[in-house]
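Dear Dr. H.,

I hope your travels went smoothly. While you were away I took the liberty of generating a structure for the chain from your last submission, since the lab meeting agenda had it listed for discussion. I wanted you to have the full record in hand beforehand rather than looking at slides cold. The sequence, exactly as received, is reproduced here:
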Amino acid sequence: MTVHLPAVPGYEGAAALLETTGLAVSDLVHVVEYVTAGALDDYASVSAAREGFLGGHAVPVATVAVAGLLGPGPYAVELTAFPGGGDLVVAHPDAGFHRGSLRVAGEVVYLPGIQPCDAEGLVHAGDFRAQYRYCLDRAAELLGAAGLGPGALVRTVDYTATATRAEYPRCGRPRRELLGGTGADGLPVFPGAAGILVDRPVLAGAMAALDALGSTAPPRTVNPGWSRYETLTYRPGVAAGDTLFMSGFGALDPATQEAVFDGDLAAQAEFVYAGIAAVLGEAGLRGEDVARLVEYVTPAGAAAHPDLAALRTRYFGRAPVSAVVCSALLRPEFLIEVVPVAVRA
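The corresponding predicted structure, in token form, is as follows:
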């Protein structure tokens, strides 16, 4: 059974939390580093702490730049583990085990974070759509090493800058051209998606970066009947095997496509949690089946975020939560975006 642990300060904190599960470093299948500008300025120290913790275990790593953390320290670490560590696939040995490999465990394919760069550095400088397409192509290459096509992608999280907000809809064309698997019912299935704005990228000059998950199981769209998704290149939920991968949820009315509860974090969060619950219900799942929540909060919502604990527990029980501060979200009115994963017990 896959174990998702919430983000905690540093690799020392991650090691201590992993120990409480009875699992070992050799069981890890994915690592996410949420790094502030201070951590990026001293990233060599983060890398050294990672190598000391992993001790040679090859695992895909996603490094996510954030505007801030809701806990202490300059960076936080989120771990995913699976007994035995699943199967390692090395796609790009020249990129190193943590950036050029993936792991397949419990029908889920864990990819490393993808930046718009090759062995020589940044590619397509100044061209947002070309960088985004490059990241999708890179994801397809990684999946290809595991014998899978780009249709195996079940969820992407896009990291872009606030300055590219107006250009973000241009992601739709490469997604439509490159993505979309065929579900068990023979219909096309686009992966779930989230779009997060971060103004200090991991890679200088990067206008787009990507985190992605795939699956070896046939995908199926999960939609409670929201017609807005019929013309989009992502879906509210994608079920594959026993796992439901969901898009990022913000306080957007699916009927009117208008942002709601401007300036009110608690009201936005309840609206978001209710939307997630609707997708869960459509998949035959409950709040207690949520195995991972990542909450991206804007600076304007950060101070009130601790007040959401009771509301979140009412919807999702004791689901592990990783909460970080982003620069902004795609809709300026949004204070929070939540990206969930649920697993059928």
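Two observations you may find useful: The mean pLDDT is 95. The CA atoms of residues 270 and 297 lie 14 Å apart.

With kind regards,
E. W.
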